[in-house]
């Protein structure tokens, strides 16, 4: 029991069913680490449904898949692990067959090491028809790295768990493997409990007379004025043309990202002719309505997304052009934005790296930081939380972060992680998404879902995760040409997707004033979403009411707020 609780989730209380030596955990373990450890941590959930997860019974439950050999070894600390060697194919590895049940979500983890160097090692789930990638890690020799991932079972089937390294010269070392199933109801309960834990705080009010005695029976009315969690929506130039669009937006959202208006091809269509008229007007509208802006973007690493005139520049001329661009846009909006997407999608593309050298992106972050040092600098990428996208895996994202921060002078940058939640029309792999957030959350950097789809599952998963600090949807009304994810029709009436968003906006804050009655000691204890509030207190014996404002944040200590009533 002690060994299990050491690895148990820090955020949710554990609910255990003990039967002999089998342990089932209904809570979710959000813990992860980006460190490479001398000895691995114990298997999460006691291994879950894996047979012999810590190899305490030699090779029981495990077989060799493909060519090669597997053998048990023991570390100096007495830790048993399995080594796969003499491999000739990337998928040559140890294997265990398990039964996945339709509708369940499976959290996977294992500790990985290799015989030399640094290599990517992936976990795959092999069915009769396909190979499903469940996660990956960049493993090293001499220490153990945590591979964390997951899979959602769309139908019941047997799968083989395999480990892959495309470098067949290295031996794969595996230890402390876990595969824990959760029902959809359990998964939803993780979200609900986590939301109460990370998005709310306890507040105590004490209502007292002028003589300091408790005022039993006082009516305490609490009204939330503003939510503390950044939940926003994309905005385009059409907002300058339509008061209906303006009213629709400002009544719902206080955070935004401009879709194209700040991009290089939007502000300098012709070389040397900069035009900020549209983004300037959008910034003005946002300020007037208390809407915070994420700057999107300074550069886009996709060669197809450059201004046409940029594509024909020599490397020397491109270097001059990017210097002018970054100085222009960042200086113009310095101190007016909450974030910059400095380089967009530079795991999938490398236009500037190919033209200007491997450190091109790191140099851009350095320059942006020098120009606007108090603003968060985001790396914005798609495919990281989807599963199956090798280029943008959490492991590769983390590697790119390290490269940026290791560039001289960049260690002080307020770097942040931007994850596009574009899942297409398929069923999202929420198990993989959550594990990806766990991994990147272990970096300690703030995470935003920057182009989230309106699928309720995605938004709820993001909002409930401890590492996620904000969400901005790339969505809007059809009248503003948001055709892929419309939230409102041409008359600004909600679409079904808009109904989902409005439902969540109401669910994640206190929309109506709440009334409570002070107890015999004058106390009122409440659990409140983080945000700004007014509290009004009245009593039948009082000739007047008292109103005061207060703010609840995750850092607010659980203190008592005294409210003095004059009778």
UniProtKB/TrEMBL annotation:
* Gene Ontology annotations of biological process type: polysaccharide catabolic process
- Which keywords appear in this protein's UniProt record, sorted alphabetically? Carbohydrate metabolism, Hydrolase, Polysaccharide degradation, Repeat, Signal
Q: Name one Pfam family in it.
A: Glyco_hydro_10
Transmembrane regions: none
Source species, domain of life:
Eukaryota
Molecular function (GO) terms for this protein are: endo-1,4-beta-xylanase activity
Q: Give the signal peptide as a residue range, or say none if absent.
A: 1-27
Which residues belong to any copy of the GH10 domain?
216-504
What InterPro entries does the record point to? CenC_carb-bd, Galactose-bd-like_sf, GH, GH10, GH10_dom
Q: Does the keyword Hydrolase apply?
A: yes
- Similarity comment: family membership: Belongs to the glycosyl hydrolase 10 (cellulase F) family.
Annotated protein name in UniProt: GH10 domain-containing protein
Q: Which organism is it from?
A: Castanea mollissima
